[in-house]
Every structure is written in structure tokens, then in C-alpha cells.
Structure to design on (565 residues):
């Protein structure tokens, strides 16, 4: 008897075109990640994959549903409540905030603090490189969008939105997507990143 | 699975509850269970709602980093957002983003002088010229409209110059060899044919690209220390490839059948254009007659180097070959025995880099 891979079944249900299905899959996974993050699970990515696996298996079993997204949300809620009920979850508190605004005051050793500083410097350099490699128009948009403060900033953003023929909300989403692209994988190395000695 | 409300109705109902203030309260943990449930349905079923949630989250992180949250919001934020590893990563990203943007801004001229700036910066001669023209015009009583037109013209020219400068900078970056590594023979080594686009095989006579055959045996062995290496048949030929060390089998062989075989690492190009193969080659044992390292693209010889015999370990010889490849091209790296394979203990490291455009993954501008 031929068994179809559950993931293939999920992708086929998301969209007949494989590329579009892949996009929808990524969106679904990002949404699940956010769901578990907002419910303060330290291992949100593991839970997101588990939820997708459960959904895929139910679909492969022949379950018919109206909305994959809402069904996935139901599965995610079920996972969340299961974890909250388990004794293990109660014994595993999420990390406490330790000197968020002053990393130097954390109880880590001097060596660890120095390494954290180096890591921050590396990330700042990578971010600067990424910003400099943006097309001129995108870079100017970011600078203008975040320039100033208070009322002046709001007025500037309204003007930027009007210049682009959209509203402030649309502009905010555009900028947010640019930021998401810029910050993706910032804490991991890329071949385009500077070497240690460059800092 | 049936539901009293169909998906469309649920979506519409959920959308109605999404506004920025509500999303902000969700992120701060200040919503009721019902509100949270509605918001979850909204951002699960609407990409727009999800995007708005992410945008509000970024704004919240920015406000926290810049110290503009109210004390109660700050407390909620720390209790509900900043307690998870993901939340802390986002805060660090927000801080890094604004630090880098501030640095970038210091090197960029202000594009708009209408609003109060973080600091007036006189960084480009063109901007200075604009101001000088404006002052001079006022001094000699020129018509203000004409001055404004002139200033606008200078501003447009300045923008054009900046764009040209940016284009030139990108060209310089390319010329400096800002490249991306696409393959590394040592780091990519595995016992799986085709993994990372590498294939492990050998040439038999007549030693052409078409005579490439895959090796079928990947085992631990005593010649390469810990780890595995590929073999044709260790009981009959020396022909083998490890992460670092290669053995050819010669027409005169020290202990194996006297049949010439060249070990070949084949890399299948995923890129189109110019790639650079570089690395080092040397003989780890020396003596006897040495060997020849070769690079071929789709069967055409592109580079070769004869590693001479030595009394002991020969120095690592750096090489660099610029290769023009098409997508799917077979780039072969081979070790040819000269006559005897005795002590042909070849160390051949290869890195392949490619000039590639930056994949920013950014959305188009509106």
C-alpha cells in the first residue's frame, strides 16, 4: 500500500502549485512561531514544527477541514494547554530578564561579558554592511522613517506614506518587512560578513 | 471537522477586532482570553494582520530600547515579551538596528531639512553650496521663489550625485572581490555522493571527463586518521579521496595493481558566471616522482600544477584559478600520478567562491 508523505499532503492542500504551497507553508510556520513565542514557550520553533507535523498527519489520514490555518491554530492551542498541564513545564520556568538594559551588570564572568560585547560589535558591523548594501531608495526610506522623534516623526511618516501613494499602516508594514530581512540570521555568520580581524 | 461559522465568517469577525492598540495590548499581555483568541484567529488567517502584529512588536521593542515606554508598560513588556529567548533576540536586534542606522545616518546627508534633525550635518559640498547660494541670494535681494527653484535644482543634482556615488561604491566592492563561498572541499566532505554538489570518483583510461566513475565505498581507514574516505577498492588500488588527503594509483604501484587511476572530486556548479577555485596543494610524504594536480571544467583542462618530489613534506603551494562556468557545469579536481604512485600522499584543499548579487530578500517598494 502506498503511503503519501504527510508533508507532501499538507503542501498539496496549501496550494496546488509547489512554490506557492512553500510560501504558504513558511507563512504558517512563522505564524506558529509567533503564537508559541507570545505564549512564552522558550522552544517555540520545536513546538511549531510539532504542530505542523500533527496537522500534516491528520491531513494524511484523510481529515477534511475548511481552513488549514484555523485547524493549525486549534492544534497549537491544544499543544500549548498540554504543555502547561504537564509537571515538567511547571518545573521549567522561562528565563528571567537579567539586566536587559545593562548587560555588564549580569553575573556572568568578565570573559563572557567581553565575548558578548565582541558578538554585539560583530552584529552591529554586519547590520551596517547590510544597510549599506541596500538600494539607495530603500536605505533613504529607512533613514527618513526613523529620523526625529515625537510629532515631527509622525508627520514625516505621514508625508512619506503620502509620497508613496499609500497610508501609514501600509508604510509601516513595508518598513517592518525590510527590517525583518535585515535582521534575519544576524547572530549567525555569513560568507559576506566581515572576518574577525576586520573589527 | 465542521464549525458553525465558516472560515470566511470567522476571518471577517476576527479582522474587526484587530487594531494597533489591541495588538500592543496582546504583546504586553494585557488582553482577556476572548480578546486573545480573536486576535490569534486574525493573525492566523490574515497575512495583513500578522504583518501588523510584527510591525507593532518592532515598535514596542524600539520604544523599550529608547526608554520611551511608560513605567507600567515597561514592566508588562519585561514580564511578557522579554522573558523568552526569542523576545530577547528581538530586543538585541532592535538595539543593533538603531545603532547601525544611526551610524549610517551620520554618513548620509539629511534628505529633508523641513523637520528638526538629530543634528545638523554639513557633510557634502553640494549641500554647503545649496546653503551658500541661498544666503547669497538673500543678501543680494533675489526673488525668493527663484532661490527656492535654484535650491531644488541643486538638491536634485546632489541626489543624482549620491546615487552615482552609490553605484560606484558597489562597483568598487565587486572589483575588490566581494564574493561568496560556494564550496569547500574539506568542510563539505561527506560519505554521501552529491551532498553539497560534490561527487567522489576517479578517471580510468583514457583519463577524460567522460571516463569519470563514481567511487562506491566510503569507510574509515588507517591512512587518513579518524573519519572516512572514499575508495575504489582498497585491496586492489590506492585510488581514494579523504577530507584532506588523496591517493592516485599509478601504472607502477607500490603494493597495488599497476593500473593508472586519478582520484577526482567533481563539483557541479549551481552558479553561472565566473568562479574562483583556490586553496593549497602539497605532497605530504615527498620522495619518488611527485604528482600533478589538475582542474577541468566540462572536460576542458583549465589549470594544472606539478607537485615535485621532495625529500620530505613539500611546502603547501597556494593556487588560484578563475573559471567560467555555466549552471550544471562539472568542475573536476584530479590528482594524476606521474608514473609511480609510491608516496603520492596528496593534500589538496579547494575553496570555490563566486561573485553573486546580495540576496536581500527585501520586498519591492510601494
Amino acid at each position: 500500500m502506498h503511503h503519501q508523505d504527510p508533508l507532501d499532503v499538507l503542501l498539496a492542500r496549501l496550494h496546488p502549485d509547489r512554490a506557492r504551497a512553500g510560501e504558504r507553508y513558511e507563512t504558517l510556520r512563522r505564524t506558529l512561531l509567533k503564537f508559541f513565542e507570545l505564549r512564552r514557550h522558550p522552544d517555540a520553533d520545536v513546538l511549531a514544527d510539532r504542530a505542523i507535523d500533527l496537522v500534516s498527519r491528520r491531513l494524511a489520514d484523510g481529515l477534511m477541514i475548511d481552513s488549514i490555518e484555523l485547524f493549525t491554530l486549534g492544534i497549537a492551542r491544544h499543544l500549548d494547554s498540554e504543555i502547561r498541564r504537564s509537571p515538567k513545564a511547571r518545573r521549567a520556568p522561562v528565563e528571567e530578564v537579567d539586566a536587559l538594559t545593562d548587560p555588564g551588570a549580569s553575573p556572568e564572568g568578565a570573559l563572557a561579558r567581553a565575548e558578548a560585547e565582541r558578538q554585539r560589535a560583530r552584529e552591529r558591523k554586519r547590520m551596517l554592511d547590510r544597510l549599506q548594501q541596500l538600494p539607495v531608495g530603500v536605505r533613504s526610506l529607512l533613514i527618513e522613517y526613523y529620523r526625529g522623534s515625537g510629532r515631527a516623526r509622525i508627520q514625516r511618516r505621514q508625508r512619506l506614506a503620502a509620497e508613496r501613494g499609500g497610508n501609514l499602516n501600509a508604510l509601516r508594514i513595508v518598513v517592518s518587512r525590510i527590517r525583518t530581512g535585515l535582521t534575519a540570521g544576524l547572530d549567525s555568520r555569513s560568507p559576506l560578513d566581515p572576518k574577525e580581524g576586520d573589527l | 471537522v465542521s464549525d458553525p461559522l465558516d472560515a470566511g465568517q470567522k476571518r471577517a469577525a476576527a479582522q474587526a477586532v484587530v487594531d494597533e492598540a489591541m495588538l500592543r495590548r496582546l504583546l504586553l499581555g494585557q488582553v482577556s482570553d476572548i480578546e486573545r483568541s480573536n486576535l490569534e484567529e486574525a493573525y492566523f488567517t490574515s497575512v495583513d494582520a500578522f504583518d501588523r502584529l510584527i510591525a507593532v512588536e518592532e515598535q514596542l521593542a524600539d520604544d523599550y530600547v529608547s526608554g520611551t515606554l511608560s513605567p507600567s508598560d515597561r514592566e508588562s513588556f519585561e514580564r511578557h515579551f522579554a522573558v523568552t529567548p526569542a523576545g530577547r533576540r528581538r530586543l538585541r536586534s532592535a538595539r543593533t538596528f538603531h545603532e547601525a542606522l544611526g551610524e549610517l545616518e551620520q554618513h548620509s546627508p539629511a534628505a529633508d531639512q523641513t523637520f528638526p534633525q538629530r543634528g545638523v550635518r554639513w557633510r557634502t559640498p553640494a549641500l554647503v553650496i545649496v546653503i551658500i547660494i541661498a544666503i547669497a541670494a538673500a543678501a543680494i535681494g533675489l526673488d525668493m521663489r527663484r532661490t527656492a527653484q535654484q535650491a531644488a535644482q541643486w538638491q536634485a543634482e546632489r541626489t543624482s550625485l549620491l546615487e552615482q556615488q552609490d553605484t560606484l561604491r558597489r562597483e568598487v566592492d565587486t572589483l575588490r572581490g566581494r564574493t561568496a563561498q560556494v564550496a569547500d572541499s574539506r568542510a563539505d566532505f561527506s560519505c554521501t555522493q552529491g551532498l553539497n554538489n560534490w561527487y567522489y570518483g576517479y578517471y580510468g583510461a583514457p583519463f577524460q571527463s567522460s571516463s569519470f566513475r563514481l567511487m562506491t565505498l566510503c569507510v574509515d581507514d588507517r591512512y587518513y586518521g579518524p573519519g572516512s574516505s572514499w575508495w575504489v577498492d582498497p585491496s586492489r588500488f590506492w585510488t581514494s579521496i579523504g577530507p584532506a588527503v588523496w591517493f592516485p594509483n599509478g601504472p607502477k604501484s607500490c603494493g597495488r595493481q599497476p593500473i593508472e587511476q586519478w582520484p577526482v572530486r567533481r563539483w557541479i556548479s549551481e552558479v553561472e558566471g565566473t568562479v574562483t577555485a583556490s586553496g593549497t596543494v602539497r605532497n605530504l610524504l615527498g620522495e619518488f616522482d611527485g604528482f600533478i594536480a589538475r582542474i577541468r571544467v566540462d572536460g576542458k583542462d583549465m589549470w594544472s600544477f606539478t607537485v615535485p618530489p621532495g625529500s620530505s613534506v613539500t611546502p603547501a603551494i597556494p593556487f588560484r584559478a578563475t573559471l567560467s562556468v555555466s549552471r550544471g557545469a562539472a568542475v573536476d579536481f584530479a590528482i594524476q600520478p606521474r608514473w609511480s604512485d609510491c608516496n603520492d600522499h596528496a593534500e589538496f584543499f579547494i575553496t570555490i567562491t563566486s561573485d553573486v548579487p546580495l540576496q536581500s530578500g527585501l520586498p519591492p517598494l510601494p
The longest helix of chain B spans residues 144-175.
